[in-house]
Every structure is written in C-alpha cells, then in structure tokens.
Hints:
Mean pLDDT: 84
Order of helices and strands: HHHHHH
Strand content: under 5%
Number of strands: 0
Amino acid sequence: MAGRELLEPPSSLEKPKAGKFNKIEILQQMFERLPVADQNFFNHGPYALAFNGSLCGVIANSFFRRILNISQAAFASTLPMAVIPFITTFVAYQGLVNQPLLSGDLNCATCAMVRAGLVGSIAGCAYPAVLALPLNIGLATRYSKTPLPGKETAVRFWITVSRPLFKKISFIAVLQAVLGIYLGSRQHEIYVKMLQLPGLSHDPEELKE
C-alpha cells in the first residue's frame, strides 16, 4: 500500500500536463480552420517588426562608423547588425506573444498589446542601438583614424558620441512600439475569432483557463 501511495502523486501531476498538451492541440486545430489571411497575418506579422529591428541595427552601425571615421570591415560589421536584431526581435515576439496566444496562456488583450509594444521598442530598437556600440568600439580601437580618449574619459566620450543616435532612434522606438501594439491587438482579435469558430466541441472558456 505504501508503495502504491508513493506512485499516486506523479500520476496526478501528469493529468494537468496531459490536459495542457490536449488544449494546445485543440487550439492548433482551431487555428488551422481560420481563413488563410488570418493565419498569414498571425504567422508573418512579426516579420515586419523584426525587419524594422534589423534596419535599426544597420542605421546604428552606420551612424557609429561615420562618426568614428571607420571605413574598413563594412560588411563584417553590417551583417551581424542586420541579422542579430532580426532574430532577437522575432524570437522575443514568438516567445512572448505568438506562442502564449496559441497555447491559450495569453487571454488578456491589453497584456498582448503591452508585450508586443515592449518587444517592438526594446528588442526591435533599443537593443540594436546598444549592440552597435561595443561592436564599433572594437572597430574604432583597431581601424579608426580619429584619436580615441584614454581610460579616464572613455565613458564620457562614448556617452557623448551615442547621445545623438539615441535621440534620433527615439522616434523609431515609438514607431516600433506602435507597430507592436497593432500586431498584438490584431493577433489577439484573431485568437478570439478562433475561439468563436462554429462547430467547437469544447467550451471556449475552458480553453482560456
């Protein structure tokens, strides 16, 4: 009897997990019943945010190269500044918005919009600009013809150099946030539409739990 009692808790823990996987499977089947236009928007909408993040990285890299008078390693510095922000923004959006919606874990429209807006402004704008700084510090140390400051004034120098860029990209950050909010809002509408499809054999409220 004692051995049987010890085996019971794991089986009781497996039931919620099975229910979770079953809910995800049901939601996925419902998603596939949506119109193709809704499916395409849900799946491909985040690419716009990621592309803008990539563009922001290229702009930040170009700004630092111009300010520091760096002409070498143009391709080697531009490629990572285009690819890394794109991947980071897309993965962040998938993990914080898309997947939680498709698994039924993000039922709050406001939460979806806030998450999407933050991904757009932070991962899709602020992060690429910050990422460009250490990359170009390394390039400047090696290639720049402009005299660089000593260790005593280095922090102040880089803050001064970066300030104009961050002022310029603040507008882009707002645009990215607005785009993210729009994507989050539309995707949540698609999620609600998915739950209201006819012929559903489960209570939509149960799938939201």
